[in-house]
Amino acid sequence: MIAVTGATGYTGSLLVRRLLAEGETVRCLVRPETDAGTLEQLGAEVVRGDFEASEGIGGALGGARIVLHLASIRYVRSVLESVDKTIERLVLVSSLRRFSLVPDPTVDEVVAAEALVLESQLPWVLLRPSMIYGPGDDRNISRLATGLRRRRILPIPGQGCYLHQPVYVEDVVAAILAAAAKPDIDHRSYALAGLEPLSYDALVDAVGAAIGVRPFKIHLPLWLVLCGLGAARGLGLRPAVDRAQVLRLQEDKAYSIAEAQTDLAYVPLAFAAGLNRIYGG
Ligand SMILES: NC(=O)c1ccc[n+]([C@@H]2O[C@H](COP(=O)([O-])OP(=O)(O)OC[C@H]3O[C@@H](n4cnc5c(N)ncnc54)[C@H](OP(=O)(O)O)[C@@H]3O)[C@@H](O)[C@H]2O)c1
Questions:
Q1: Ligand 1 interacting residues, C-beta cut-off 6 A
Q2: Smallest CA separation from ligand 1 atom 1, residue
Q3: Residue 34 maps to a domain
Q4: Is residue 279 part of a domain?
Q5: Domain extent for 21
Q6: What is the pLDDT of residues 90-108, one digit of tens each?
Q7: How many Å from the N-terminal Cα to the C-terminal Cα in the chain?
Q8: Looking at ligand 1, which residue's alpha carbon is closest to its atom 22?
Q9: Which ligand 1 atom minimizes the distance to the CA of 50?
Q10: Residue 217 falls within a domain, yes or no?
């Protein structure tokens, strides 16, 4: 039996479909208030639990041959404590955000969680995706596309020249499946990013081209954006983006995927090819 956390999420729901299609027996940890109807209809076993309340974790993960943890890496302590010591493989999905140099508690959380993983003797494999995109509401590229369809004018904090390497969701799922199955890769970590990096400006233009919109990009001086955010906070407003997000946009997010290519037969799509899968005719 394979246990999956985060099975109702964007990547997890696709992963569970793939596992069931391959004939696996799948048990999903799902929060008590979350609709698990689709998972049950597909044939997955659903066990209710919540990492925040430390409820149901042992019941969901105990007895599993393989555990695929996609709910946030910040819950990894519970996972490490709840899986059987005889488990064959524990695939933990973290984030390439852990390499960000922008001071941010969410980055510190990932780094602290990964430190627990590194200490563990369990047969773990750590996967670090970059920004995940794909069909439906990926909450990343899909929202940029929706915004551009409404208004082709796009204010961009800074120069838009920093690199990004988004990863197509099916490539992440394929890597998780490979990491679950491949022998002799215990205690290794892999970056999962798209085939090649591109600048934020090029990313916006590629999305525009895919949806038939020519974006009109307005580059705003960084100092102006940061002052604006500070002033908004001072007035008690809650801007849609926070300071750390704006600063992370100014970091190069280009990663080597060579190890995943070698060990996991990882062949990710280039960004234009991924967009074509989503928006192509
Ligand atoms: N999306 C990205 O761009 C991106 C980039 C890098 C890394 N990652 C990592 O990749 C993994 C999958 O990302 P995703 O975007 O596909 O995930 P997602 O759509 O945000 O889904 C998160 C999943 O975790 C579950 N979950 C949240 N809190 C929980 C709790 N307290 N107890 C039990 N389950 C809980 C959610 O359940 P509910 O349905 O009940 O909310 C949901 O199934 C995550 O670990 C994420 O941090 C994502």
A1: 5-12, 29, 31, 34, 50-52, 70-73, 93, 95, 129, 131-132, 140
A2: 132
A3: yes
A4: no
A5: 2-132+167-193+255-268
A6: 999 999 999 999 999 999 9
A7: 38
A8: 9
A9: 32
A10: no
